[in-house]
Amino acid sequence: MLTRRTAMQSVAVGSAGLASSTFVAIGRAADSLGSIAAAHACLYGCAASTFELQNAEFASLLAREPRILVAEYEMKRTALQPHPERYDFAAADTLLRFSERKQMAFRGHTLVWHKANPPWLSDALASSRSEALLTGYIAAVAGHYRGRMHSWDVVNEALAPEDGRTDNLRNTPWLKALGPSYTDMAFHAARSADPHALLVYNDWGCEGAGAKHDRFRAATLKFLEQAKRRGVPIDAYGMQGHLQAFGAPVDQSKLRVFVDGLKALGLKVLITEHDVDDGGGPLDIAARDRAVADASRRFLDVVLDSDATIAVLTWGLSDRFLDPPDWKAALKGYNPRMLPLDAAFARKPMWQAMAASFAGRRGNQLLIRQSLLR
Ligand code: XIL
To answer: Block means of pLDDT (10 residues each) for the chain, length 374 residues?
Structure first.
């Protein structure tokens, strides 16, 4: 089966029959997550990959459900700059052209990260303190896409309170080579390269319950507040939104306080990589789908209750292309079901939950208040 892991080596073949969709009772005209979200002042979108476009049936769904796309691989530095002297924009351009033809917006992901970097860059960062390794890349890439990006994840996952630094920065090759101001440099370089794109700081660690997430939320607000005070051009916080169906449930009260804190800093909020890991629960598909939907709803009801939230993207659209489970899980018959559409492209309870969350954007006060009382 073609998955994220095998995608780069092979091309999608075959197509399952389009399973009949179940519709929420909101009328035909509004029958996609994109249009339901749009009716409630929100962009819905998803990550996509060039190999997925080879599947005609899926490509038509990609043209129908989302209103914004983001590249799952194709805009990571390892893909865009395989060699110091050579940029390769071909695959990323294919995705962008697809979204433009279908009149969708597009997000760039990601300019600065400690992962998905080409090996030559890791070597260079170990021996050089050249800011150009960072700013030259941003100028080239954000410049190439100037005026065509809705937003850029300029810096991804730069915080790690558990690394023990007082500024809470993650101990990455970027930090070691360029010092703590590398994040400021990145945002300034992105603003000059593309003044039209919304500039996003993207991270995980603030969605969940528990002390680790409490520390992460505090660290994130502090980092963003100080950056804003220094005049760093950050427009929005990207909350990845990777949840777990059978882990500790989202603490709605703490999440709400966090989103309010972001809004108070003048930031927009985007949910950038939402999915719900259904590992660790029962094998029964209906039970897993219900837990995934409940987790998604519980999360989205809170973030969508703030007018700071402007977009929700899932990290993929269909379970078809998820990596297969490890062999132990596979022996038990477990296949991950983390996204709104199942592997046959039928809508799952998560799709319904997301639709209901978007549709209830103004009317969910009571629900949230009830959960706060628990
Ligand atoms: C992941 C992709 O989904 C994987 O298939 C790939 O092998 C590695 O990158 N946080 C991010 C995303 O910001 O870029 C990551 O995407 C998932 C975690």
So the answer is: 54 28 37 96 98 98 97 98 97 98 98 98 93 98 98 98 97 97 98 98 97 98 98 98 96 98 98 97 97 98 97 98 92 95 98 97 51 37
Cα(96) to centroid of ligand 1, in Å? 18
Determine if ligand 1 sits within 6 Å of the CB of residue 156.
yes
Give domain status of residue 119, yes or no.
no
Is 85 considered catalytic here? no
Atom of ligand 1 nearest to the CA of 47: 3
pTM of the model: 0.91
| Three-state SS annotation for the chain | CCCCCCCCCCCCCCCCCCCCCCCCCCCHHHCCHHHHHHCCCCEEEEEECHHHHCCHHHHHHHCCCCCEEEECCCCCHHHHCCECCECCCHHHHHHHHHHHHCCCEEEEEEEECCCCCCHHHHHHHHHCCCCHHHHHHHHHHHHHCCCCCCEEEEEECCECHHHCCCCCECCCHHHHHHCCCHHHHHHHHHHHHCCCCEEEEEECCCCCCCHHHHHHHHHHHHHHHHHHHCCCCCCEEEECCEEECCCCCCCHHHHHHHHHHHHHCCCEEEEEEEEEECCCCCCCHHHHHHHHHHHHHHHHHHHCCCCCEEEEEECCCEHHHCCCCCHHHHHHCCCCCCCCECCCCCECHHHHHHHHHHHCCCCCHHHHHHHHHC
162 flagged as catalytic? no
Find the CATH number of the domain harbouring 209: 3.20.20.80
| Domain contains 86 | no
